Fold these 2 entries.
Entry 1:
Amino acid sequence: MNIRQMAMKAKTVSPQLAAVNGEQKNEALAAIAEALVRHQDEILAANQADLRSAEHDNLPAPLLKRLKFDPAKIQEAIEGLKSLQQLPNPVGTVLSGMELDKGLELFKVSCPIGVVGVIFESRPDALVQISSLCLKSGNAVLLKGGTEASRTNKVLAKLIDRATCKAGIPEGWIGLLETRADVQEMLKQDSFIDLIIPRGSNAFVGYIMDHSRIPVLGHADGICHVYVDKYADLSMAEKITLDSKCQYVAVCNAAETLLVHQDVAGAFLPKMKAVFDAHQVEQRGCERTRDIVDVLPAVKADWRTEYLDTIISIKIVDSLAQAIEHINRYGSGHTDAIVTRDAGRAETFMNRVDSADVFLNCSTRFSDGYRFGLGAEVGISTNKIHARGPVGMEGLMIYQWRLMGNGHVVSDYSGPRAKLFTHRPLKLSSPS
Amino acid sequence: MNIRQMAMKAKTVSPQLAAVNGEQKNEALAAIAEALVRHQDEILAANQADLRSAEHDNLPAPLLKRLKFDPAKIQEAIEGLKSLQQLPNPVGTVLSGMELDKGLELFKVSCPIGVVGVIFESRPDALVQISSLCLKSGNAVLLKGGTEASRTNKVLAKLIDRATCKAGIPEGWIGLLETRADVQEMLKQDSFIDLIIPRGSNAFVGYIMDHSRIPVLGHADGICHVYVDKYADLSMAEKITLDSKCQYVAVCNAAETLLVHQDVAGAFLPKMKAVFDAHQVEQRGCERTRDIVDVLPAVKADWRTEYLDTIISIKIVDSLAQAIEHINRYGSGHTDAIVTRDAGRAETFMNRVDSADVFLNCSTRFSDGYRFGLGAEVGISTNKIHARGPVGMEGLMIYQWRLMGNGHVVSDYSGPRAKLFTHRPLKLSSPS
């Protein structure tokens, strides 16, 4: 089966999958867990082969660690499947109801998006997590994991496919892509795929946004700011700036630029420099910053750079307004934080910074589905439509309008003797 | 100012516009109404010139009627502005709240999308309606109306721009495009425009979807079905089929294909044919249909054709499942109706038909923002993300995550002595 056929098949079965009830989906999730236990040896053997080949290719240690799928991680995946079973079925929730006229009732009902394509990093646990999230939300899914994990992913996808089909989920709801050429092919299937969720490298996400008509949920850049206001608690600002930059540098929600109000720059920057120096952070400052502390010069390109490294750019601003303007101009609409004791200025910042996540007096690193309490995270979105910021299962849902009549026709509501609509909101109760 | 500059300006002012409070937006809406009254003569003169030139170009009567902007229509536009003032400010609503830990509280807050590009038909009242909806929802907007209405639109856009700026709305929030070349240019401004809403001809919507990286909210086709089930009340089915096809043929929610269960085809089709004949509807049937009634033959292309005319294609299906399959294969995901007395079969139909609107025992023509009680309609969407079916002001909104801490950093929540998140849902109250 080629990718086009795989996508077509997924599209064809997606309405059946959407109609599977919550109980049956939970049974399928339990069947996946059971398969992971029963076929643990096969999974571990495939993962060993992936690891050997990655070591042979001199993959860096952190990547090897993520690639590894050992009994402990399998157990974690099983826990994840169990907690997913505890969640209510997100399909079929009545979101609103309105009587249009006597006996003519309109309901807005949650439903899956349909077919989702997910491209993810070399973590085999991600395959289990994403496919189970899609199953629970009633979405068919095409998966492409990191090439380094290909043997493990192949075994996992096969086990999930078999286990779920035995549990009555329509065959073809899950498909595994194996090569980059497969991904190219997938990007063309806009007749069959409703949404692409790319995780992983930013350049790659940008490429996908440029090369597909399918809507993309994700973020190309994470240029996050910490703004230290003139009313900031400076020792809090130090702590937050350090955490935002250094707690984990290689991620999209790490800070790349520090903005400092001119009134506190003299007091704050020398202390902050000492902290950064102690953590081996390379600092690149604007001219005014360099009048205060001895750091490297920042050039204009720095304001637009996502370092993903122990580097930070620093700029002194005249005012809150200038900080906001800088963020809206150079940021990527991901996560931006203000440190201030002034609630009014915090509100202005939040009202005017056009980013998915705006934070007060805390680290940009909190921008994460798990920390937000969303359960499993589908991805982080800098889109301006559908879903923004950390996206949980809700991002895989949409709705359908259901109108229940009893012979109602529009011609009765037009012309000189037109009937009037009542448009009376209905109390909600699930139809299923 | 060229289109790129216009879009850039709109993007720049959009965070300010997003932060304007509800009272001030209402004052600006009132100022628009006042300007329409005060400058009525100027508007009427421009509209007369548009009408003269349209008559000269032999525009059909229905189009002339839509183009006309007379004192009665101006009064209607003013009423629309008044009712918009009555609506609550949709910006800043707290949609959910969660305590992540003591003193660390997360809120999901509604906000405008940002900058919207709307392309609409030759109705000057549409310009007033769309721009006022955008203003109320805090979105900057670039507008392109039908060329026939260009003089009227120019006057209206100028009046709205002036009136709102005087009322304190940031200058540049509204821009008027005048030519098709302007539209081409707008489609390229994906750095500044967040959403395109094209109304009007289907070919045009398809063109836009193909030629822009900006997300598009709309529908290219409206291939709507009426399925007459074996448990249908046949006289109800007759009435609904007639209304769905004939109440207004030139619109996207009119039915194009009639599906009939084989068990009732013999009883239903001869009666339906008589009704269609009486209404001069051309009928194109599958072979089995033609065994029962004398109609033209349907070819495969008919199942994919949006006639927008007094033509209908008719197919006999073996089962409910076959009807669903036909709709999912050939339909456009717009609006599909089932006529049946069997609630279980209706539910199966609604669960499995992958369309924005699924209707039971009523006409497809109800698929409309006004009839749905959504207030003004932004458009009808066959997208699978963000907004589906008739879209009201809600479709112009998205949300932002706001996290309020007190020095919280992620490093405290990791490692061997990690603090735990509480993830306790908060009672909602608006922060503003």
Note: Chain A touches chain B through 79 residues (CB under 8 Å).
Entry 2:
Amino acid sequence: MLPDDARIISVDDHVIEHPRVWLDRLPAKYQDRAPRIIRLEDGNDAWLYDGERSGNFALNAVAGKHPRDFGMDPRSYSDMRDGCHDVEARLKDMDIEGTWAQMCFPNMGGFAGSTFWRSKDKELAAACITAYNDFILDEWCAFNPERQIPLCMVPFWDVPAAVKEAERVAAKGAKSITFLEAPHRLGLPSYHTDHWDPLLKVCEEAELPLSVHFGSGGAPAGTAEDGDMFITIALFGLNSMMAMVDLLMSPVFYKFPTLKFVLAEGGIGWIPYLLERTDYSWERHRYWCKINAEQRPSELFDDHIFGCFVSDQTGLNERYQIGVNNILFESDYPHSDCNWPHTRKVLAEQLRDVPDDEARLIVEGNARRIFNFPG
Amino acid sequence: MLPDDARIISVDDHVIEHPRVWLDRLPAKYQDRAPRIIRLEDGNDAWLYDGERSGNFALNAVAGKHPRDFGMDPRSYSDMRDGCHDVEARLKDMDIEGTWAQMCFPNMGGFAGSTFWRSKDKELAAACITAYNDFILDEWCAFNPERQIPLCMVPFWDVPAAVKEAERVAAKGAKSITFLEAPHRLGLPSYHTDHWDPLLKVCEEAELPLSVHFGSGGAPAGTAEDGDMFITIALFGLNSMMAMVDLLMSPVFYKFPTLKFVLAEGGIGWIPYLLERTDYSWERHRYWCKINAEQRPSELFDDHIFGCFVSDQTGLNERYQIGVNNILFESDYPHSDCNWPHTRKVLAEQLRDVPDDEARLIVEGNARRIFNFPG
């Protein structure tokens, strides 16, 4: 059962950046091209950044709406809960849903800063990342450091610059770096190369787990025409599956034996199957494939990879096969997977057959340990 | 436990076509371009078809080899067990591994005949498919119809021709059609269109389940450089996951209420997670996505989709969440996943906690019912 005094920590929520995040922070020379909100003719809001319109809110800001009102149209700030973009209102919404602390991914910036990676002017892009990090550290999380866990971006297209930014935000109190689940799918070097080593080294030394959100390695697995968006949503977990196997087969955890990856929004119910399958394949193919032939993938998993769930009874039933220490909760506020305002109630139902000490780890203890966020 | 008298039926094995499959059957005008075996300079064998060298045996013909000897080099017929290509020897190998009956996918032809789909001369390609079907029906399976279940291809690039061939092989005793898990990934119309309806109608009427082998919808989920082949092998199941969600969200099962799909070599341990996830997503997105909003995906699954496993303790532990009636066994002989000669022993270990009546269904009864193959 979920104990009444357990303080739920969600490790995957989302901030809808308010319109002045970048305008307030970018140097004067970038003001003209700073990300800003424009009002469209239909009355909705959209981001304009370096001449390009990017993204909309839609399913990313639906907390409190009935699924009948879900859709892909852009929305305006006035059509979403204040908690999406206002940290004071956010904490009140967390009180309503029954969560104590949370870690937020960026929205306009992309899960790992990929919006800026795509922009042509990489100097401006790096400045935008610094500005976002200062926003999340100095404004959003500083409002109540006991209840907001800082997750920062790095300019991943430039490893020395990414190292510098990781060191800077670590010194300012960041608890995790949002990174790419599959860099090779963006045309960047894979985890099987040495390319990322300087950054991974800094993250290991500063005890910063890498939070890799599904979709941060490019488009999720798409399928066919009608119902395509739905199919993509149901298949979110496949990206995390690919990331898990790719990382377990890479040299990363041999080079960085205390580095941790957190797979956000991929679910957990598939983990026992995929660990069994990966071990099975490893038994057969370790001799001829260029992979580490000594340590069983499922053993590597225990120390290095952590799964997250919004709602996943299958995974909770199989928690001993996953490892009770490897499971984290996520609310996903204000995205369409979240159960706000019933977050705590839905979670308690899922934990009804889980012993109290295990439930405490899953909803709070693991997050405090993994993200070095003591209560 | 696996009862001693249970006759194991494997629904996913593979025939290595012998060198005369097409030479013996194609009309004289195609003899020059018929698929034939050529001896390479290094002493290995390879197929030559319509001027192109295609495929090799490698991991597809390793039954009985130690994993230390696995690899991607081509091999020769003399470097594989006779059971790969000789049905009499095959039955002896089945006796050794302890299986009673099996259904074989093509090798040179591709899982669903895709080798022929890629060839330029589609008239020759269709003739090759007819020849293969006659081989599998009249030669391979006719040798012992109680122990070989005929699985046939259709020229899927031409729906009227595919309908005709499905009718022809059904009349000759075919029990299943090998088809595409994701036609849209080959650039063909998806299951969300009406394109395939005439073929699906014939399959439904003739009680021919569609056997869709992972990889029949194009390349499996690839990843990065080193260890790439291993990662692909560990991720085989992802193709079946995509196919399952795609089919459940398509109109196919509403149009053809008794049609069945068998997902070969995708494993089963992920099914409870993905059904839960698909239902969860459907609850939220059925209002605005173009999908059927009435029937829960997991309910549709029960009557229409069947999972297969070589070795999957996770899935067997979760069998009630999958449905004991929806699980089929596969040996995968002579591919690299198979446990020959220990097939029955490995299976019995996996079934040690499964009640006898359920074990009987999983290893034999379900296959007999689904493929209309009475004992």
Note: The longest helix of chain B spans residues 122-141.
